[in-house]
Design brief:
CATH class of the largest domain in chain B: Alpha Beta
Number of strands of chain B: 20
Order of helices and strands of chain B: EEEHEEEHHHEHEHEEHHEEEEEEEEHEE
Distance between the termini of chain B: 29 Å
Distance between the termini of chain A: 27 Å
Helix content of chain B: 25-40%
Number of helices of chain A: 11
CATH architecture of chain A: Orthogonal Bundle
Largest sheet of chain A: none
Largest interface: A-C, 90 and 85 residues
Oligomer: heterotrimer
CATH superfamily of chain A: MetI-like
Shape of chain A: globular
Number of helices of chain B: 9
Number of domains of chain A: 1
Strand content of chain A: under 5%
Structural class of chain B: alpha+beta
Shape of chain B: elongated
Number of strands of chain A: 0
Number of domains of chain B: 2
Radius of gyration of chain A: 22 Å
Radius of gyration of chain B: 24 Å
CATH architecture of the largest domain in chain B: 3-Layer(aba) Sandwich
Helix content of chain A: over 70%
CATH topology of chain A: MetI-like fold
Order of helices and strands of chain A: HHHHHHHHHHH
Chains: A mainly alpha (about 260), B alpha+beta (about 350), C mainly alpha (about 280)
CATH class of chain A: Mainly Alpha
Structural class of chain A: mainly alpha
């Protein structure tokens, strides 16, 4: 078995390098002192980060992204959690089909969803509005929230609710005191992930946004289509660090709740 | 229907529960007296847990009535039934400390805080965990978790305590220790207990009475010694304790014994059902009631193997018809007999220690 | 045991009330838009099959469709081969290995696809770090063409797809009893045969789910071929975008979307037949 074990270690190492190397390279280049993407950089500086802070286009984009992601993530967390509770605990007819339906935006290419939204929004005058953007982001994030909370709910022992009932708790009390607290880590982590997902979303924002309503990814996209300097590397590094922080936060959340899986 | 006896706490009348076409519980009726320890014993799928769940109100019967403390609880949800329940996998709330778990039912009943604190401490002391209140459930061993579950189900002194295979997830020595403890609590707290298990020795050691379930019905209900010494059906004889079976031809009847022919040998067994001479019956004899001799009267058999059990010996026997029987003998008696594998022996028993059941069916 | 607690009576309409808002949002902002885009295929510029006929008659369009399928089909086995050992190590390795690898796979999963694609562009450039490294250690004399071609698209795509292979594989592998392979070994099967006859078949549901997911998500890729591919790696997603934003021909965009969704739906229903979508959705 030894050579197989060695092969496994080798592949895992290669995959690790493959997954992390590009991000590390961007991080390094963002501190380059040169105006071109030479690697390794000839010297190091903060100038591209300064550039970022001084460029109103980038700062606007950050503002738009935040104004989209907060309501979108909150709404899709509420919707996804309610749906998961209904479908997993409600014992309703056709729960499987409805669940699959809620997951559909995950498998439909977002370019199709985006183009469709653009058509609908033209009639409603929602293109280029915050509302339109938020609704699009809800659709993209909802499946992930639903899947996360539903799977947490499924792994929650229904006997705990039965036990609460025999001990004198009404269904509402049992849900509030037992189910909800045990579900909280999953709900919070899906809220975090929805935020990250919304922050990263490009294609919907590209279609339903406008020249004045640009999220960070749209701004990155329009910058890297032509010649680019390390300013993009700086914002990309920041995005990466934000994602890393969110991930660490989520891991902490799980650890604190004694979730061993 | 008659009115229940004054001492009756729980009465089930013709309870039925259907899953699709399959009747999980089929016309179950029984009574549980105040302070009684009643056990539902049966193989898995026999309907015992379903019946318990219906008493708890966690499942609804399709038919029949459940009368708890003199009132029908058909329309009463579990949280208003005044029951306590202990689950096989403890079902402790993982996000609450031990104290909070035990306090939960008191909180649901709006017990004043000081009173609740006192009751929780007393309950934890009762199950031998006075210093574990601030731990989280996952920091406790399986046995300790089950003690907490027990304290939680008893702290508010419910009228009836339900236990669904509470020791099923524990290893043997811990199980025996907790059996004694539950028994002690039952005695000291004068609780009425409905207990579910598939372990017949657990049922025999703990219960005042046992209801044996099979295929959704109660086969027999009685004290442990009733069930063991006078099984009403072949199923009970086989499920409770160890039993040897052989089919025999009925020769005739004298008072309450039948004369039968087992492998050509004339034997006597106690008569429980009406049958005609010439028909076949199934004879059941406990291993410890069998006497072994080298010769003389009795059923001829061959001693195939002798198993050492320390305080006793198990004799593995083969009858002329090929049936494999076992006989159990205390160590000194077995040594005196001087029997060895390969010996031809004669088996006999006293008529009242052998039961006869209709052949075929159960 | 035999009886699960069927819970006491919440009103029957309660779950529907919880579900209704999601269903409404999905209907208005997903079903309706996608439906209208697809309808365009049959209605614009005028009712009929014209858009599909057009696709059939223009070899460029067919070429792009064919390219999309080929590129997706090429990326899938690469992702599976790389993901399988990682999932195996996660499922059967030590707790530390599992935590480390989970984190490793989650980092790209949580990082924006755009950011990662951009990073890959920098990494793979003609004078980028990878070529520099390979030349410095003397493995190659001249920079390799790693970008704006099929290699670039595959390298970029597989990286983003790996989590989608690894998670379903991991979840089906951790349900495999780890003593089964040793058991096969004691019965005289060599390690390769024990793997092929015992382990691989048991991990097949995860493998098929992963393969299907990778393939269908890749079909809709847009950012990666645009950033890392050349003209010959143009994929349907880009074509749809071009049709809308450059040419304004919603009919053709609708027809292309229709075909893309049809392929996705067929693959998903095949997967459903073979392993059941429940197993996939976990």
């Amino acid at each position: 078995m030894r050579p197989w074990r060695a092969l496994r270690v080798l592949v895992c190492t290669l995959v690790a390098i493959y997954l992390l190397a590009p991000l590390v390279v961007v991080l390094i280049i963002s501190f380059s002192s040169a105006a071109f993407l030479r690697f390794p950089p000839p010297g190091y500086s903060w100038r591209w980060y300064a550039n970022l802070l001084n460029d109103p286009a980038w700062m606007d984009a950050v503002g738009v992204s935040l104004r989209v992601l907060v309501p979108a993530a909150l709404a899709s967390t509420a919707l996804g959690t309610a749906s998961a509770v209904a479908l997993v605990r409600g014992r309703m007819l056709g729960a499987g089909v409805i669940g699959a339906f809620l997951m559909a935006p995950m498998v439909v290419p977002s370019i199709i969803t985006a183009a469709g939204l653009y058509i609908i929004y033209r009639g409603l005058g929602l293109n280029g509005t915050l509302t339109g953007m938020v609704i699009g982001h809800i659709i993209i994030t909802l499946p992930y929230v639903f899947a996360t909370v539903a799977s947490a709910l499924r792994s929650l022992d229904p006997r705990l609710e039965a036990a609460a009932a025999t001990l004198g708790a009404s269904p509402v009390t049992a849900f509030r005191r037992i189910t909800l607290p045990l579900l909280a880590p999953a709900v919070l982590s899906s809220l975090l992930f929805a935020m990250v997902l919304s922050f990263d979303e490009l294609i919907i924002s590209l279609f339903v946004g406008s020249a004045r309503l640009r999220t960070v990814p749209v701004q990155i996209w329009s910058n890297i289509r032509g010649d680019f300097d390390p300013t993009v590397a700086a914002i990309a590094s920041l995005c990466f660090l934000v994602a890393l922080t969110a991930l660490a936060l989520e891991a902490l959340l799980r650890r604190r709740n004694g979730d061993r899986e | 229907m008659t009115t229940p006896n004054p001492g009756t706490l729980l009465e089930l009348r013709g309870i039925r529960k259907q899953y699709g076409r399959h009747a999980a519980v089929d016309d179950v009726s029984l009574e549980l007296r105040q302070g009684e320890f009643l056990t539902f014993l049966g193989p898995s799928g026999s309907g015992k847990t379903t019946t318990l769940m219906m008493v708890a109100g966690l499942q609804q019967p399709d038919d029949g009535a459940i009368i708890l403390a003199g009132r029908s609880v058909d329309r009463v949800p579990p949280y208003r039934r005044d029951i306590g329940m202990v689950f096989q996998h403890y079902a402790l709330f993982p996000h609450m400390t031990v104290r909070r778990n035990v306090a939960f039912p008191l909180e649901m009943r709006s017990t004043p805080k000081a009173e609740a604190e006192r009751l929780v401490s007393a309950a934890l002391a009762m199950v031998g965990l006075p210093d574990h209140g601030d731990r989280m459930p996952r920091q406790l061993s399986g046995g300790q978790q089950q003690r907490v579950a027990l304290a939680r189900a008893m702290v508010y002194r419910p009228a009836l305590l339900l236990m669904d295979e509470p020791l099923g997830a524990l290893d043997k020595s811990l199980r025996e220790q907790l059996q004694m403890e539950i028994k002690r609590l039952h005695r000291e707290q004068r609780m009425s207990v409905l207990y579910v298990t598939h372990d017949q020795s657990e049922a025999l050691t703990m219960s005042d009475r046992i209801a044996v379930f099979n295929e959704g019905r109660i086969e027999q209900i009685g004290t442990p010694s009733d069930l063991y010494e006078r099984p009403a059906t072949r199923f009970v004889a086989g499920f409770v304790g160890e039993t040897n079976f052989v089919s025999a031809v009925v020769l005739g009847q004298e008072d309450n014994t039948y004369r039968v022919s087992v492998a050509g040998a004339p034997m006597a067994v106690s008569a429980r059902f009406v049958t005609a001479p010439g028909s076949t019956a199934m004879i059941a004899v406990r291993p410890e009631r069998i006497q072994l001799r080298r010769d003389g009267e009795g059923v001829p058999a061959e001693l195939v193997d002798l198993i050492y059990l320390g305080n006793a010996r198990r004799f593995v026997l083969r009858l002329a018809g090929g049936e494999e029987w076992t006989a159990l003998m205390q160590a000194d008696a077995a040594e005196e007999s001087g029997l060895h594998p390969g010996d031809a022996v004669r088996l006999s028993w006293q008529a009242h220690h052998a039961a006869a059941f209709p052949a075929g069916g159960h | 045991m035999e009886a699960r607690p069927s819970h006491s009576r919440a009103p029957d309409w309660a779950p529907w009330a919880l579900l209704l808002p999601s269903l409404l949002v999905m209907l208005v902002a997903f079903v309706l838009p996608v439906g209208m885009l697809l309808a365009r295929a049959f209605t614009q510029p005028e009712p009929g099959w014209q858009n599909f006929v057009l696709l059939w008659e223009r070899p460029v369009y067919l070429q792009v469709l064919w390219n999309t399928v080929l590129i997706s089909a090429a990326a899938t086995p690469v992702a599976l081969l790389l993901g399988y050992p990682v999932a195996h190590a996660m499922a059967h390795g030590s707790a530390r290995t599992r935590r480390l690898l989970t984190f490793l796979v989650l980092v790209p999963f949580w990082t924006s696809l755009l950011v990662r694609s951009f990073a890959t562009v920098i990494l793979l450039q003609r004078r980028g770090p990878l070529n520099t490294l390979l030349m410095n250690i003397g493995l190659i004399d001249a920079p390799l063409p790693l970008i704006y071609n099929l290699t670039g698209v595959l390298l970029g795509a597989v990286q983003t797809l790996l989590p989608f292979v690894i998670f379903p594989l991991y979840s089906s592998m951790k349900r495999i009893d780890p003593s089964l392979v040793p058991a096969a070994l004691t019965m005289g099967a060599g390690p390769v045969r024990a793997f092929l006859r015992v382990y691989l078949p048991l991990s097949l549901p995860g493998l098929m789910a992963g393969a299907t997911f990778v393939f269908i998500s890749m079909l809709g890729y847009f950012v990666i071929p645009a950033l890392l591919g050349g003209p010959r790696q143009t994929m349907v997603g880009q074509l749809i975008q071009d049709q809308i934003s450059q040419l304004g021909s919603w009919g053709v965009a609708g027809a292309l979307s229709f075909i893309l969704l049809a392929i996705t739906a067929i693959l998903l229903s095949v997967l459903n037949k073979l392993v059941g979508l429940k197993a996939v959705a976990r």
